[in-house]
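In keeping with the milestone schedule agreed at the kick-off meeting, the structural modelling team has produced records for the first pair of proteins. Each record is given below as a sequence line and a structure-token line. The laboratory manager (R.T.) confirmed that both were archived under the project's standard naming scheme.
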Amino acid sequence: MRLIEVIKFVSVVICLACFAASALAQETLPSPGITPDSWLYGLDRALEAIQKALVFTPEAKAKLSLQLATERLAEAREMIEKGEVELAKKVAKDYKEELTHAVTYGAEIKDLAKKKEFDEMVALATTTHIEVLEDVLEKVPDEAKSAIELAMEVSRKGQEECLSRLSNTEPEKALKLYFMIAEKRLEKIKKEAKEENVEEIKKIAEDYKSKINKSINIMINETENKSAIFEIVANATSKHLEVLEELLGEVPDEAKNAIEKAMNVSIKGQQEALEALEKVKPEKAKEIRKQVLEKVGILIKKLK
């Protein structure tokens, strides 16, 4: 009887864990809870092993792995702050493994709606993960940098894999996520501009361009709901160009060329979207083009 009660209890915990994974995908990292420097940590990981043994569907396994990856990242950050470099390196490695498991299990989800939901969850979670890892990378001693960089590489790869799947199953959702991530890249540039970190600005600007180019590819390849896709691209790039114009005045001179290149990619996507929209919704295209000219018309003329 006691064994049955224990199994029931652990099952409830697992359900709550999966729910937590969904919430964490859209928020900041959770509290690390019991950390690797605690004598209770071994027990904590043993309970996780029981959780893993009691989940059976790809969806449940994927969500649990994503939750555990997020926990490992929170622990790694905490260990860095405490100066426990070796422990940080170890849990950073565990983070990579859990996130890889999450993405792999996600690919095995049969129900299309659930698969799309999970892919979106990973895209959102890894956006937070990458931001945290970038901040951690600035703080860690040299001997831990490679571990954090590898974790970041796995996070980016997982994000891209899920966004790629989502591009095929729900292009409009993938497009919005790409633009959201690109916008966060611009926020990061703003932060780096204050520190006058030229090389980091250049690197992030390249990442921004990559996200916009992938958005343009989704737009080009989409065969259904074209007008909605064209509107999303035209409006999002207009907003981005406003931010990029501000950044152009904030970054060091050595980084201005990188910002101008990012602007050109955004302008290219915007013009393609507006030209395509004119063929299906000419009045809407005219309305958006007017708004664009009012907001960033002078900037576009300068860059042409």
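The second protein of the pair:
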Amino acid sequence: MDNQEQLSESSGSTYQPEEELSHTDKMTGILTEPSSTFEKISKFPLKTSDWLLPVVILFLVISLTQILVMTNDEINFQVKQKQNEQLQKTFDNMVESGQLTREQANQQMETAKERMAMSQ
């Protein structure tokens, strides 16, 4: 007899092997109980679907978010406005530090705006 059979006979209960977690349980468990979830996951061989499924879900969420942001004119305008403000601050800092002249900064700002307009 092996140890598990002896253990089950002495305790009076039958040994039930631990079941592998479903993908949903794994993803939820990593957020709610990471240490115990990783411990349970480590007891079973790795599968491609264990990492591929979360990556695909993440890709879909990012894609849908980008589509929603870019198709909503108001949100798209706000995003572009923030990009322009940040770009202007960057060029202003470069002019103040002497890395660029004001003319070079203005020229690069116009080039950047043209590129952003082409990407629409």
